[in-house]
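Hi there,

I know you've been waiting on this one. I reran it after we fixed the sequence typo, so this is the corrected version. Both the input and the resulting structure follow.
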Amino acid sequence: MRLTLLVSALAVALSACGGAAGTSSSVLPPRLTEQASGSDQLLIAAHAVDDAVVWASGAGGTVVRTTDGGATWTAVPVTVAGADTLQFREVVALDARTAWALSIGTGASSTIAKTTDGGASWRTVFVNDEPDGFYDCLSMWDARRGVLYGDSVDGELRVRRTTDGGATWPRVPAASLPAAGEGEGGFAASGTCVATRSDSLAWIATGNADPARVLRTSDGGATWEAADLPLVAGEAAGAASVAFRGDRHGVAVGGDIADADAYTDAVAITADGGRTWRKGGQLPFPGAAYGAAYVPGTDALVVVGPGGVGVSEDDGLTWRLVASETFWGVAAAGPDAIWLTGPAGRIVRLRL
């Protein structure tokens, strides 16, 4: 949403100070390895296909990729008109060759570019045709089916889906969606405000309205229902990310984007597939969480934000602090294959 400008300013300020306040005694011994992304741009989103193939994207039209677990990263310039002026706040990959990159902004700044040759060439497969529209996140079930989510327009939620690999993105009719809250939208902070699982389940984290909510579908995005979240809510607050470790257990995280020093109700947990939610434990760092990812093969959950990095092993009830530096995005392929992205081209591999 347009509040991403506020998100950017807060995160850059925190980065300049070395992250949000925290005591050294609360930081666990580091298990983080810096990797050279080859970029000096803010890296916002990451997608780990496996422990070798990872894609990341960010400001300045940046997309980078590794096929060796991050030992080397290669820039994959997005070869569409004006790409260097776009912020790619989402990248979703199937493998080392096929990926979609979502740029954000009002009107035609919200676009999706797709590559099928590892980034050697790209083609634009979606351009937002609504001047007041603003798309935040996308997720794919498989090579053909996916979901795209954006801020509400004229009091209606904006959800689109594809069944042809992203060649077309028709809107889900308003009658198949809950009514939008005033100003309701998403936070394009890490590319994780949409999550897909199994053949037809998906969840969308919303914010900037009261209450914050999670939208849920069980029929591949054809129809959606909403559940309220016990999170701080309102303008510049709510849920920024949603993640599931199975079809039933999941979390929604966020907070007050505008207050980098506050400890607020920023974690909600579900054990029934997102139909109902209850309050989780307090994050181990101040400010909002921008992104969340469960670690495959474990019960561990990793969250990131301008205030640091936290890990939970009980679905968000309790947390431990791993680092207090600023990060925006997180992607996980396994307990020794977790990637964190952040300002100035930063990529770190985390091993639990």
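Quick highlight: The radius of gyration is 18 Å.

Best,
R. S.
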